Amino acid sequence: MRVTISRKAHFNAAHRLYRKDWTSEKNNAVFGKCNNPNFHGHNYGLTVSVTGKIDPETGFVLDVKVLADIILEEVEIPFDHKNLNLDVPEFQDLNPTAENIAVVIWNKIRKRIQPDFDLEIVLNETDRNFVTYKGE
């Protein structure tokens, strides 16, 4: 019997969408107002879901407190109230689009979750725009 548990979190962060190897004109054409040189921010919503077998001893798939601590350590502390382009090493050479942020978060959490568990990340950039990543 496989069951999915989920935990919601949020963080606030600034970013700029642009490529260093493109001209200003091309960056503006592709990324528009998200290419603002002074950055812009979002109140990101995050849902992390873990699917696995229920442990017969505990009755848990994974203790939600453990999942909350992983999210805090891997996402909230390193990303909250940060400039993703400048303050978060994973984005020094990676454009911090919602898609790339979701993959980075998935990779950070994946290393802390048992390999036989499935992991899904849903990252809300706005109330209407979100990205889902389940791994390769």
Automatic annotation (TrEMBL):
The active site is at 34 (proton acceptor), 81 (charge relay system), 125 (charge relay system). Its cofactor is Zn(2+). Binds 1 zinc ion per subunit. Zn(2+) binds at residues 15, 40, 42. SUPFAM superfamilies: Tetrahydrobiopterin biosynthesis enzymes-like (SSF55620). It catalyses: 7,8-dihydroneopterin 3'-triphosphate + H2O = 6-carboxy-5,6,7,8-tetrahydropterin + triphosphate + acetaldehyde + 2 H(+). Keywords: Lyase, Metal-binding, Queuosine biosynthesis, Zinc. The keyword Lyase applies. The keyword Magnesium does not apply. GO terms for biological process: tRNA queuosine(34) biosynthetic process. Pathway: Purine metabolism; 7-cyano-7-deazaguanine biosynthesis. Its EC number is 4.-.-.-. One of its GO terms (molecular function) is metal ion binding. Transmembrane segments: none annotated. Belongs to the PTPS family. QueD subfamily. This is 6-carboxy-5,6,7,8-tetrahydropterin synthase. It comes from Flavobacterium resistens.
